[in-house]
Design brief:
423 residues; alpha/beta; 29 strands; 9-stranded mixed sheet; 6-stranded mixed sheet
Length: 423
């Protein structure tokens, strides 16, 4: 089955709600958990599920993402065995437009998908459509098995959500008792409940499995349909419901915790909360599961180091994640995530914050409830996050919950100009 399957990862969204973190990179390329990128979770799911034919469709600000895939992921695939993780920018084979929607992105790459799957019409082949900007663990092999056993033409991954929570937030499926999809509504105000469960509904995860030939035919129809937004959830799925062979597949979590874990870190506050949860004693997301590893690019850097143990000058980190190459030199770090090659200098304080690669915190500086992008230097004695109004007046972004976000070159000098790492 895995040899007959190709995964198409949609990684071309702007991620405008994550600005300024997406000012210079695509949303799937945004760092997460110190050492990872958001897209690493989808790609790790593919690898752990045995799917090793992957096309990653990019569009906006793709250079950082392209570099990350080529440097960090190619070692997991053997081209001679037909394995690959290829980054595919818009090729304009159909016309000169950019991708007009999720369905159009796949439609414009039918030629590439067919070429990689082979042209044997008698051979059953499957296409798994995935989003590259969500945090979760899922076995796509089980999803494929469900798709094949049910005889479906299309299968949609769904989450069980409270109706009040899903209202105006998700596409919602109406299903029968056998999980056959009867209807689909895009962000309805009053979601249809699950049969026998009036409090919950089934929300779309943006994950789809199609029989390849059927998918290509429907995408060609959608491309000529006047008024279509060329979106899977809004256009393609509703159009194929009359076939009676569209099924919903309830999300089965590989995170192995009490509650299902799936996060759309599409806003700065959601991103901040999901990251900071990782430093808790028992985080919701298990990053230490050897049976379902999350892979990424690991730069060749020395271990983190903590120096000075004087009474008033002590380098330490509590309840924190500290990545390779980082030096906490006489500073204090609490409940924070420090990316690679960060430096926290003497008498500095970092609390409840996320520091990307190469950030330098000057002496006596204080940082609290902040997200600081790659390579930023916080000057000695500066205070960040203690006065949100002052931070906003300085030109920094301040979220609704009061988190201060500093972009790469926003009012502070760059640090670590030599030997930059590809993060």
């Amino acid at each position: 089955m895995k040899e007959q399957t190709i995964a198409v990862v949609l990684a071309g969204g702007k991620g405008s709600r994550l600005e300024p973190l997406t000012r210079d990179r695509a949303k799937p390329a945004v760092p997460f958990g110190g050492a990872y990128r958001i897209i690493d979770f989808t790609l790790s799911n593919c690898l752990n599920s045995g799917i090793k034919k992957i096309l990653i469709l990019t569009q906006y600000k793709a250079m950082s993402l392209d570099r990350h895939i080529n440097v960090g992921w190619q070692r997991y695939f053997c081209r001679e065995l037909g394995e690959f993780a290829d980054v595919v920018p818009p090729q304009q084979r159909i016309d000169e437009s950019w991708y007009q929607g999720t369905a159009d992105a796949v439609y414009q790459n039918i030629y590439t998908i067919e070429k990689e799957l082979g042209t044997d019409k008698d051979r059953p082949t499957y296409v798994v459509i995935l989003a590259g900007d969500h945090i979760y663990k899922m076995n796509y092999r089980s999803l494929l098995e469900f798709h094949i056993e049910s005889g479906a033409l299309a299968t949609i991954g769904v989450l069980r959500r409270r109706r009040a929570e899903a209202a105006r937030q998700f596409g919602v499926m109406e299903v029968d008792t056998e999980n056959r999809v009867l209807g689909f509504e895009e962000k309805p105000a009053d979601p249809k409940p699950i049969p026998g469960d009036p409090e919950h509904c089934l929300a779309s995860m943006g994950i789809y499995v199609f029989s390849a030939r059927f998918l290509f035919e429907e995408l060609c129809k959608d491309a000529t349909r006047r008024g279509s937004r060329h979106d899977f959830g809004g256009d393609v799925i509703p159009a194929i419901l009359p076939t009676g062979k569209v099924y919903a597949y309830p999300f089965r979590d590989e995170n192995r915790k009490k509650d299902l874990y799936w996060r759309d870190v599409g806003t700065l506050d959601a991103y901040y909360e999901a990251n900071l949860d990782l430093v808790s004693v028992d985080p919701e997301l298990n990053m230490y599961d050897a049976d379902w590893p999350i892979r990424t690019y690991q730069p060749n850097l020395p271990p983190p180091k903590f120096v000075f143990a004087e009474e008033h000058r002590r380098g330490y980190a509590l309840d924190s994640i500290v990545c390779a190459g980082t030096i906490v030199s006489g500073g204090r770090v609490e409940r924070s995530i420090l990316g690679p090659q960060v430096r926290v200098n003497s008498f500095a304080q970092v609390e409840d914050s996320i520091l990307f690669a190469g950030v330098n915190i000057g002496r006596h500086a204080r940082v609290r409830r902040a997200i600081i992008d790659k390579g930023v230097h916080i000057p000695a004695g500066a205070e960040i996050g203690y006065d949100p109004k002052l931070d906003f007046a300085r030109g920094f972004t301040v979220t609704d919950s009061g988190v201060t976000v500093i972009a790469k070159a926003e009012g502070v000098e760059r640090f670590w100009e030599s030997e930059r790492i590809m993060i």
